[in-house]
Request: fold
Amino acid sequence: MGPLPKRKVSKSRRNRRRAHDALTLNHLVECEGCGEYHIAHRVCLKCGWYRDTHAIEMNAD
Reply:
């Protein structure tokens, strides 16, 4: 037999424990190449630039 809880965990105690589980928004920064917003420390999906280098080729679509 494994360990079992001694008593019921109340809703307020359960919810306080889960207070830190909420999702957070990604940190958005402005692209130096095109001015669009993208996730920090990632390649811009509009123009393909990362910091001051051209990282990937983008289609003209």
About this structure: Strands lie at 28-30, 37-39, 49-50, 53-54. The radius of gyration is 22 Å. The chain has a mean pLDDT of 86. DSSP finds one helix and four strands in the chain.
